[in-house]
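Inputs:
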Amino acid sequence: MTCNPELVSAYLDDELNDIIVESVVEHLMACGQCRQLMTLFCQTRESIRNRCIVPNPELLTKTIMTTISNEKVGKKSFFRRLKHAS
Amino acid sequence: MADVTTTNHKDLDWKLIQRVKKGEHRAFELLVRKYQGRMASVISRIVFSPEKVEDLVQETFIKAYRAIDSFRGDSAFYTWLFRISVNTAKNHLASLGRSLPLSDMEIEEVLNIGAAPQLKDDKTPEHAFLNHELMERLHHAIENLTPHLKKAIELREIKGLSYEEITEIMGCPIGTVRSRIFRAREEISEQLKPYLGGAA
């Protein structure tokens, strides 16, 4: 599937049929540009709904995901050490 | 009228969570992107420092990730995340020797009726985030949409209607509604981009 911003928009509204939604999720998992677009649309939605805007959503996402990745690496190392020790 | 079954939020999120549980942490990133703004809104009703709000949003998602195996899908992921964020914010207040100014129910109600007049007061903490310039640009962007696009986005984002309901009101096919909502979002986003801090 190639980039299709209209489907990203409909995905956020849960307005895609079951067949298409799987392809859109797969595409979002693989395409950084469309993930950023998803965030932009979410931010736009929050501002229209008069809600809070995260000042730098990309940085916040990156910080969260980096922490999680480091934790995963940490967990793996711990279990590896445990395995070697036994 | 839609001719195919659509998946709802709960199912969509549950599918992503199952992938997270299998170790695909990119699936968790999609949930972060989808809900970080809403969690910031929840927390900003409790904690008024924008920097602290971001820290607590981060903490919320990290706690959620650590506990993801215990999430069984009995409630919506958003509801579960909402509880984590409120508890995280409460713990923060408790660490400062303060208590929660609103009940959980009041916070949820406030978020569900985001357009309530009292919340439009510029003095509310939430508006510390939404600076005046952004609001002006947003208003300008919406006013400059063609009438069809403006109506479609207002019915969706302000009235909260489904595409099917919008189809009935606007008297056009569902594909046209989808396209109008997308084009409206695209035009508004383009105008707001400089104020949305690094998104896309």
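The radius of gyration of chain A is 18 Å. Flag for discussion at group meeting.
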